[in-house]
Amino acid sequence: MNLHLSIGPLVSLIAGVLILIMPRLLNYIVAIYLIIIGLIGLFGTGALHL
């Protein structure tokens, strides 16, 4: 049995649990997510496959 995990859903799951535990983290998690997505959009992923 093979288990294939991609990083997107895993990060979303962890972020969701952290937000439930500590709602104040929502601002930081959203800000970091937007910055990372923006950087990937500007520079491309190159050889990085997420």
Characterization of this structure:
68% of the residues lie in helices and 0% in strands. It has one domain. The mean pLDDT is 76. The chain is built from two helices and no strands. It is mainly alpha-helical and 50 residues long. This is DUF3096 domain-containing protein. Pfam families: DUF3096. Keywords: Membrane, Transmembrane, Transmembrane helix.
Feature tags:
single chain; 50 residues; 0% strand; mainly alpha
Number of helices: 2
Helix content: 55-70%
Instruction: List the secondary-structure elements in sequence, H or E.
Output: HH
Give the CA-based shape.
flat
Through-space gap between termini: 22 Å
% residues in beta strands? under 5%
Low-confidence stretches: none
Protein structure class? mainly alpha
- Overall number of strands: 0
